[in-house]
Write a structure and sequence with these properties.
The protein is mainly β. About 10% of the residues lie in helices and about 25% in strands. The strands form two sheets. Strands 1, 3, 4, 5, 7 and 9 form a six-stranded mixed β-sheet that branches. Strands 2-8-6 form a three-stranded mixed β-sheet. The two termini are about 20 Å apart.
Length: about 150
């Protein structure tokens, strides 16, 4: 589900933009977005660089979310020279609740929710922009309500 006022999903070619904490991104079956032609793109090393398909630990997408500055936000970059298979979420929804704008540059990578979790919960009231990232196999329904209840 991509939700909220200000959401933009321009077909299958552009970025997803979620505005003002409106957003849940979790698609049951369909893919959202098409990986960009930038597959095989490296990123500058740093705490917001994703270098592994693991759900947790150094270099994971979850660690990058945890390293976002709550006031300034930041840009998460998925290094597709190292991340060559889908990132599968196995624990919980990726959540951001800061006030700074966040951009995720997927560079053609894919994130899947294992048909268990919402993929991204934006509870920030800030701008979330997702570029070149395929989002698949998210879950909606009772898990969505449980995730909201925990906030």
């Amino acid at each position: 589900m991509v939700g909220g006022r200000g959401s933009r999903v321009p077909g299958l070619l552009g970025a997803v933009v979620l505005v003002a904490g409106t957003g849940l991104v979790g698609l049951p079956v369909l893919g959202l977005g098409v990986p960009s032609a930038a597959a095989g793109t490296s990123c500058t090393a740093g705490p917001l660089t994703v270098t592994t398909t693991g759900d947790t630990g150094v270099g994971s997408l979850r660690a990058a979310f945890g390293n976002l500055d709550p006031t300034a936000g930041g840009t998460i970059c998925i290094d597709t020279t190292l991340v060559t298979t889908p990132i599968t979420l196995t624990s919980t929804t990726l959540t951001y609740g800061g006030t700074g704008a966040v951009t995720i540059d997927g560079n053609g990578a894919s994130v899947e929710g294992n048909n268990t979790f919402l993929l991204i919960f934006d509870n920030s009231g800030a701008l979330l922009t997702i570029n070149g990232l395929e989002l698949t196999d998210g879950s909606t329904g009772t898990n969505e309500r449980a995730e909201r209840a925990r906030r």
